[in-house]
Amino acid sequence: xxxxxxxxxxxxxxxxxxxxxxxxxxxxxxxxxxxxxxxxxxxxxxxxxxxxxxxxxxxxxxxxxxxxxxxxxxxxxxxxxxxxxxxxxxxxxxxxxxxxxxxxxxxxxxxxxxxxxxxxxxxxxxxxxxxxxxxxxxxxxxxxxxxxxxxxxxxxxxxxxxxxxxxxxxxxxxxxxxxxxxxxxxxxxxxx
Length: 192
Known about the structure:
Blueprint: H1 2-40, H2 50-64, H3 67-73, E1 79-80, E2 87-88, E3 91-94, E4 99-102, E5 109-118, H4 123-130, H5 132-144, H6 148-151, H7 156-176, E6 183-191
Antiparallel strand pairs: 1-2, 3-5, 4-5, 5-6
Helix pairs in contact: 5-7
């Protein structure tokens, strides 16, 4: 009878030991999964602080109001090799979509496609692409103020292009502190 009681006690303890072992193994697997995921995602990699330092330096420059440092950040004109005169390279970019606006007090619609020209480097075009929505809105505002009488003027397109250029530069100066657009061209111009 004593042997039977010992066997019953051993059998009772055995499931408890199994449950504890399964729990420990599950915790180890879970911990391994978490550490492996952190390793794969680069959590343990050495952090690159140069980007944060550059942002901090930019903020310090803004706070100190350093005009010289700000002027160095502006785009530079790209010169052409010419023996007699200093000439600048012309760079062109066309806005992707057409602009369509109603004429003031008319049922007519004006549809244009615009291109911009600059003597500066590609940073001007990056700014144009970055703020294209604001530039398109500005151009539409200028177009919307056009009347039927304006269309009959001989230099209407030149005046409208100049207004758009001034507005584009104002928008770029507002957001990027530098305009850089020398001319605006119509690559398509339709009034219906």
